[in-house]
Design goal:
The structure is a single chain. By secondary structure, the protein is mainly α. The protein is 59% helix and 0% strand. The protein has 6 helices and no strands. The two termini are 25 Å apart. 40% of the residues are buried.
Length: 234
């Protein structure tokens, strides 16, 4: 499906737009600074924004569902419109999994927020909270999936000489997001809060930024396809 005048693959353009929109919508949490959520951004987790007992649950939940839907569409179109190389395919498959997990995350919210409701049980933390709550499981799958997306496409950009933007800005975003994730995992297993809310917001902000960068890189295109007789790493 190409434009006759410019030879543009419409599938790639739509996939790029979906990624950019998904990245922006995945940052819907910034609305907490303009809404009276009653939660402290330095100590609360983002999943608490759309807990069942929260006043703006529908807004944040809908943003996640739309984000997930856009990611699934981007994964399908991207897979069809980009080179069938191992790392690229891995990135698109992980994008689809991230989309599905994000939708499930919104549909399986926390029941309540302990900070607002003394009767609400404190959610388990540690490395494997997903063993205790379905929401933690879907969140864990989403995080693993989007990190797979980020790593796969960044490595592909270097290995296959694709998407120059991912070799610069994309790599920088990946490093910042990885550091924020390390901060979050370490702090979550220490006494006290240690800015857990800040760490998670930097982490998710980095994930959102990477989706936008990936969409821009995809829209700008790739290097010319190799000649039939050339050898291309897979």
């Amino acid at each position: 499906m190409r434009s006759r005048t410019e030879g543009v693959d419409i599938r790639r353009v739509v996939a790029a737009i979906c990624l950019i929109l998904a990245g922006l919508l995945y940052s819907a949490w910034v609305a907490e600074f303009f809404l009276d959520t009653g939660l402290d951004p330095t100590t609360s987790f983002l999943s608490e924004l759309d807990a069942r007992d929260q006043p703006y649950r529908e807004f944040f939940s809908t943003a996640d569902v739309v984000t997930g839907s856009l990611m699934i569409l981007a994964a399908i179109l991207g897979f069809l419109a980009t080179p069938r190389r191992r790392l690229v395919v891995t990135g698109w498959v992980a994008s689809g999994i991230f989309g599905i997990a994000t939708i499930a995350d919104a549909k399986l919210p926390l029941e309540c927020v302990a900070a607002d409701d003394p009767s609400c049980p404190i959610e388990p933390s540690g490395l494997f909270p997903q063993l205790h709550h379905l929401h933690a499981l879907t969140s864990t799958v989403a995080v693993f999936a989007i990190f797979t997306v980020m790593i796969a496409f960044t490595v592909a950009a270097f290995r296959y000489r694709l998407y120059p933007l991912l070799r610069t800005l994309g790599l920088a975003v990946l490093i910042v997001t990885t550091l924020a994730t390390a901060w979050l995992l370490i702090a979550d297993n220490l006494p006290g809060d240690h800015g857990l809310g800040v760490a998670q917001r930097v982490q998710v902000g980095g994930m959102s930024a990477y989706l936008v960068v990936l969409g821009c890189a995809l829209r700008l295109g790739v290097c010319p396809s190799p000649q039939p007789n050339s050898t291309v790493p897979r």
